[in-house]
Amino acid sequence: MLSTLLAASLAGSCAAWPLGRLLGRRGAGWGLALVPAGLFAAFLGFGPQVAAGRTVTERLAWVPSLGVDFALRLDGFAYLFCLLVTGVGALVVVYAGAYFAERTASDRARFLALLLLFMTAMLGAVLADDLLLLFLFWEMTSVVSFLLIGFDGGSPSARRSALMSLRVTAGGGLALLAAVLLVGASLGTYSVAEAVARAPELARGPWAVPILGGILVGAFTKSAQFPFHFWLPNAMQAPTPASAYLHSATMVKLGVYLLARFEPLVGAVRGGRDVVIGVALATMLVGAFQAIRAENYKAVLAYSTVASLGILVMLVGLDGPMASVAAVGFLLAHALYKATLFFCAGTVIHATGLTKLRQLGGLGRLLPVTAAASLLASLSMAGLPPFLGFVSKEFLFEAQIESSWEAAPMAVAVLVNAVIVGVAGVVTLRPFFLGRGRVREVKHREVPGLLVGPVALALLGLVISLEPAWFDRTVLRPAVAAVYGAPVDVQVGLWHGVTPMLLLSAVVVGVGTLLFVYWVPIHRRLRAETLLDRVEAEHGYEALLRGIEAAAAGVARRVQRADLRAQLATVVAAACAFVGWGLLAAGVVPRVPAEPLAVRAGAAVAGAVGLGGAAAAARAPPLLGALLGTGLVGLVAALLFLTNGAPDLALTQFAVESLLVVLLTAALLALPLAAPPTRARAARGRDAALATALAAVCFVAVLDMSAAEPRTAVADFFGARSYTEAFGRNVVNVILVDFRGFDTLGETTVIALAAVIAWSLLGPRGRAADGGDAPDPPARPGPFVLRFATPAFYWLLAVLSAVVLLRGHNEIGGGFVGGLTAALAFAVVALAYGVGRARGRLRWHPLALAGTGLLLAVASGLPGLAAHGDYLRHLWIDAEVLGVAVKQGTTLLFDLGVYLAVLGAVLAFLFGLSREAER
Amino acid sequence: MSVLLALAAAGLAGCGLYMILSRHVVRMVLGLSLLGTAVNLMLFQAGRVRTAQPPLIREGAVRLGESADPVPQALVLTAIVIGFALTVILAALALRAFRGEGTLRSDELRAARALGDPLAPEPGRDR
Hints:
The complex is a heterodimer of chains A (919) and B (127). Chain A has 919 residues and is mainly alpha-helical. Chain A has 3 domains: 270 residues, no CATH class; 242 residues, no CATH class; 190 residues, no CATH class. Helix content of chain A is 74%, strand content 3%. Chain A has 40 helices and 4 strands. In chain A, the strands form 2 sheets. A two-stranded antiparallel sheet of chain A has the order 1-2. Chain A is elongated and about 120 Å long. In chain B, 57% of the residues are buried. Chain B is elongated, with a radius of gyration of 22 Å. Chain B has a single domain, classed as Helix Hairpins (Orthogonal Bundle), CATH 1.10.287. Chain B has 127 residues and is mainly alpha-helical. The longest helix of chain B is centred in the C-terminal third of the chain and has 32 residues. The chains are: A mainly alpha (919), B mainly alpha (127). Chains A and B meet through helix 7, helix 26, helix 27, helix 28 and helix 29 of A and helix 1, helix 2 and helix 3 of B.
């Protein structure tokens, strides 16, 4: 049932965007408000169960292997939040529909959809009984509130405020995540209820302080507690309906919700209550002080919200059952009157276009209903009887008297409450009832959409305190019982006789009235005082951001020295050091293969020659020498492959090395062959040492690998199925074209793309006027011997390449080797007669060749797809041609594609490089 | 045999790195080619060196008998061709760089500097 409601909420918010456009200017708000209103009605239906003290739970397995469940739980406290979130949500949606009446349909629909999405996130967060789920919804509220605050993304200040609130609240969410993971690791469960029930166990554990710290940082950032409070006044950049929702009933109360849930942990960890109450007192003072100094209508409300949140957090921090009663009562009273006041402020700002309190006055006659609602809400805020605010204030002082705390919280609470009384007077009396004539006309009159919300909530604040029976039974007692952990006997009543609480309330109202009367001089006096501005936490935030950016730039400058050599050396040195350190630290002795010195003489000679070639390549000052050394190494590698059972590799390596020498020689001819040393002697020494270290690490690693028992499962698989399933005897080729055909297709694509890259790099710069390729250099006769032998070589290599291609599936060979061999045939022609002749021989454009090859390879998989629904599953036919049985498959097509792609690519390299070099 | 192959692969890797650390672009390209060969030899070694028998299924047999491991060979075969393409493209780049900048020293190729400091703060960026 709960998950159904949550899903309905999500579906409603997703549908709100398109629906909001369809419903039009008048209908959007009213129509979409049906979603939260329906949810509100559904939650009301849980009333009897909640009143009876039962909790509703639901649990779906989500990630069973990690013990994470999609668990929902509705107890009294969550119930209060669900009613608030959906009830206020419905009114906010109606209000927002009217507030956005002149905006485009797209803006309106987007805003309403975001509001509903935010409501979904809030519902999820308060219903979640799994800490990870709670965290997920928690961060979802941060992200959606970012979108709401930055709704007018065209304004730089809106963007700044949105980013600020996201950084602060989502950053606090990360601290919460750390705490959540620690709780999961300590208790072996992520259940919220169980974690709270086992709070003493957590408090005794080694992670008590980090867990509590993470939870506190999460709650403090979300609920705008000092020193993280600065995001909330900045968030007033949001359109006012969003402010009314986020800062009265929902977002900022989520931190209080979390804190109240984990109140047992706060109490169980030594010093926990001191920290919470200390932070709360600081928040109350800062909020109250800044509320007096603020000039903007919404800013005054915002700072008074900060102060109220401080009071709530203080109440959570206090011990005793009355603290829980007071917290729940004040949470509700504040949500009702603060949402109303934001609504009224929004209407005033919308109707006048003015934002500063100083400019406003005498609006009571122009906006009479709004003025009345504002008055009711202010009376509740001031804590005057018979409003809910009065009841909650009585609870507050009772909780303070009952708790074990000294007088400091009491004194601060009296002072801050007096300021709140003053604010209550200022935000209603000044714009609506004083300063008559300051504003003479408004842009629009009151419309029903702008009135329903404030009037309903303002009256509710009166109805609940006058007719408390249902509310007391269904909402207050279950919520308090859920927070306190045991039923508390509370009585909502207006008259308890002359008690200390009543006297304190009277003091507060008296001081507050004085504050209101002398508001303007006090306001001016405090505005002149700029000390607090200078030490405001917002500066710390700015400085932190600047510091992070400077540090990032500093690190990047230090590491990124625009010198490839130094960076590479650092990477290699670090890698070698890590491997060496790991081996030493773990005490691992590398294994040595059996009979290490059993080496055939021929192989030893080949190896020595190869190493000599490599050393020569590394040391040779002339580039041609280095190139020849590299070529020698390739030939030796081919020999090693040949003598160790890899003729396919040997053939490929031979062909590649020959082509590489031809191609690089062509390129080098265009470059200065003299290459003076680019490194100082000392640098060369360091590089040699580094190279030796790398060689040593490689040697040890390969030796150790050789000594280990080989794993042959994969090789056995291919060996057993190559012939029976893929009808090929050359297992290497079968792997390439069949078992791992997809992989090879990717590599063929790489080759074809390389051809395109090389052609565009080396292609004709100065295009001929007709747009065609520049003419190739004229054919020139080569040395006599070469000319004499070339036709023979050409045909030999061409035929060989065809044979290698066709036999590849059963004998040595395949598309790769075939393509390289064919390219060698053209290279011989190019060497003897120049590139022009070779291009003439080819007739095709090399890129066309490569592209055709790629297409063929891609197409060869299609018959399998058509026949078996399996791309690149090759098909085979048995036929008899001229009396000879022929068994052929689409593998040949695939290999032909590879052949053409490789041939086209190599020729693109050859023609491009030669032409570029001969320019 | 495996000691010899290990020695060859390690030596090649060292020489390749030494060349890559040079500031001459052509040397770097050649060094990369050497390093590629070294890595191919190491990959080949992963299948162990047991026999000179290539992985071909004999006439009349239906499954592979005693032979070299075909799996690393399939990997190395494409790696050789791709490494070759990489080397050639790098050479082409070197050639073009020389045409454009008149030098082959990596520390003198500084066309990117003209684009300015990537870390300099941009005016008007949101914070």
